[in-house]
Amino acid sequence: MKTILITGGSGMVGRRLSGMLIEKGYEVIWLSREKHIKAEIPRYKWNLLTGDIDKDALEEADVIVHLAGVGIAEGRWTEARKRMIVGSRVRSAHLLLDKIKELDTKIDAFISASAVGYYGATTSDKIYSEADAHDDTDFLGVTCFNWEEQAKQFTADLGVRSVSIRTGVVLSEESELIKKAVLPTKFWLAAPLGKGNQYMNWIHIDDLCRIYIKAIEDETMEGAYNAVAPEYTTNAEFMKGVADVLRKPMFMPRIPEFVFKWFLGESAQIILKGSRISSKKILKTGFKFKYKKLSDALQDILIKKKKNKLKK
């Protein structure tokens, strides 16, 4: 089986994807801050500041899955934070490309994360598809565009198949979104955030990882694909869905937009804005979502996994 090199492997998605790949018989290795070859998943060192990457990792890799990047939704977007967001994604991909050229080694595919922020921070009636242009007036729109352009360079410079996975809100028991939505709901404080009519383009973490695996295995996949569930869900519907699964009422008035803008500044747009994103392109590849409905995804994350923990 092929060896899959993952950047950002220790993150929420990286850990789950690694486990699913190993279950399928793949060899998985990570690029990490520290080298630890004898770890359960071997880790090879890279350093973005010095531009160093352990050449053994690149020589072993058949496919690179590029998940590395500092959190977009963590705190205010200061100018320093913005530089970190861009650099940890775009500059790191550029470094990988340069090192592969330098070593003259070959890989079969470069699969990169991206985000639905590509389409910009807007709430409208439009349903966005991969054919739509990025929002060149929006920080995330420009960041995602540059992120994907760097992935395309693997094809332009090396003839390597490249895929960008434009991801929505990832639903997992480990996700900060779920934790922040569940806590007030447990205390009967669930409420829509902002106007509540903004769409939340969500995906269950297992479906997201299955899309990555399909991108690894399906050689016809190239370019950008939206990784969002087929069901369109507003923020108000999402919060109501959490309350319903936890069997709690939702009667609190919506939390005004200014609260989020006060604390988060520009980054509040992640919470307060959102239009519908189409999943038709990934469905046309033959991919089948296991979690098509929010209620099923939340049931799995909030109830089934809780029961499994109690059994242990």
Outline the secondary-structure elements:
Elements (H helix, E strand, L loop, with lengths): L2 E5 L4 H12 L3 E6 L10 E5 L4 E2 L1 H6 L2 E4 L12 H25 L5 E7 L11 E2 L10 H20 L2 E7 L1 E3 L4 H11 L15 E3 H13 L5 E5 L7 H11 L11 H8 L4 H4 L3 E2 L2 H5 L9 H18 L1
Parallel strand pairs: 1-2, 1-5, 2-3, 5-6, 6-8, 7-12, 8-11, 9-10
Antiparallel strand pairs: 3-4
Helix pairs in contact: 1-6, 3-4, 7-11
What does this structure look like?
By secondary structure, the chain is of the alpha/beta class. 43% of the residues lie in helices and 16% in strands. The protein has 11 helices and 12 strands. It has helices spanning 12-23, 55-60, 79-103, 139-158, 176-186, 205-217, 235-245, 257-264, 269-272, 280-284, 294-311; strands spanning 3-7, 27-32, 43-47, 52-53, 63-66, 109-115, 127-128, 161-167, 169-171, 202-204, 223-227, 276-277. α1 (12-23) packs across α6 (205-217), α3 (79-103) runs parallel beside α4 and α7 (235-245) runs parallel beside α11 (294-311). The longest helix has 25 residues, at 79-103. The radius of gyration is 20 Å and the shape is globular. It starts with a strand and ends with a helix.
Short characterization:
43% of the residues lie in helices and 16% in strands. It is of the alpha/beta class and 312 residues long.
Within the largest sheet, what's the order of strands? 4-3-2-1-5-6-8-11
* Largest beta-sheet details: 8 strands, mixed
Q: Which regions contain 5 or more consecutive residues with pLDDT less than 50?
A: none
Question: What's the total number of strands?
Answer: 12
- The gross shape turns out to be globular
Structural class, please?
alpha/beta
Binned strand content: 15-25%
Total helix count? 11
Tell me the series of helices and strands, N- to C-terminal. Answer: EHEEEHEHEEHEEHEHEHHHEHH
User: For the terminal residues, how far apart are their CA atoms?
Assistant: 32 Å
C-alpha Rg (nearest Å): 20 Å
Mean pLDDT: 92
> Portion of residues in helices?
40-55%
